[in-house]
Amino acid sequence: MINLNDKKILITGSSRGIGAEIAKKMALLGAEVTLNYANSRTRAEEVKNEIEAAGGTAHVVQADISDFDQAAELVKTAYAKMGGLNVLVNNAGITRDKLLLRMKEEDWDQVLNINLKGVFNCTKNAVRYLLKAENGKLINLSSVVGINGNAGQANYSAAKAGIVGFTKTMAKELASKGVCSNAIAPGFIDTEMTDELSENIKAGVIDQVPLARFGKAEEVADLAAFLASDNANYINGEVIKIDGGMGA
User: Fold this and answer.
1) From its phi and psi, is residue 6 left (phi > 0), alpha (psi between -120 and 50) or beta?
2) What is the structure's pLDDT at 205?
């Protein structure tokens, strides 16, 4: 049984998709959570209301995590609102997909700044709190394309691969204080991001997945909740794929 009672958890990019499901799952299991959004305040408030309607506790804080100062204020505010910080979930991310020949510099920069630099910004500011927490946890959302690559996603793949290296380095740097650092590498998950794909592309993806379906955001949330719990206190430096066997 996963129990997150007394856990104080910050989830970046949690107004929708995988981040929202992670926040809802963790709150349902007893955690106090802080939701973060960059632009979608209404949607973040909807997630907060859903959590509270189910008996949980949630806070909402706006921040563009690609900006170091805003990330610092986000972490500071989350800590103050919750009275602690046990777990940081670096989930926020965007895509700007194009073949490299057509990719603009701004497409590269935007993805790297949010998806990778944002992880540095938030972790750098949260580390002092995680080190003080009992069984602190760092959970980073990578992707199978950060392991295998994917045509048209040089920027996204590079950022997600960077998260893998960052996660493993944090596992070595923070372990002496009992903080575990792990990454989740989802495959194709049914979210608004994958809704934008054409039916032909979706069919092609499903052909590559032994389970013959897209994953669910709730399934990723289940894994994140496990990694945040004391059940996972001896799991450190791992990159756990959740892709239906696509990368097997």
Assistant:
1) left
2) 78
Residue ranges of the binding site for NADP(+): 13-16, 91, 156-160, 189
- DSSP per-residue codes, 27-80: HHTT-EEEEEESS-HHHHHHHHHHHHHTT-EEEEEE--TTSHHHHHHHHHHHHH
DSSP 232: G
Using 50, 70 and 90 to split pLDDT, how confident is the model at 204? confident
The tens digit of pLDDT for each residue in 220-247 reads 999 999 999 999 999 999 999 999 998 6
Mean pLDDT, the chain, whole residue set: 95
Going through 57-146 in order, the beta strands assigned E by DSSP cover 57-62, 87-90, 137-141
The pLDDT, as a whole number, for residue 197 is: 67
Residues 170, 112 contacting (CB under 8 angstroms): no
Task: List, in order of start, the domains of the chain with CATH numbers.
Answer: 8-240 (3.40.50.720)
| Contact in structure between 20 and 220 (CB atoms under 8 Å) | no
Indicate which residues carry an active-site annotation: 156
Q: 161 forms bridges with which residues in the sheet?
A: none
Which residue ranges make up the annotated binding site? 13-16, 91, 156-160, 189
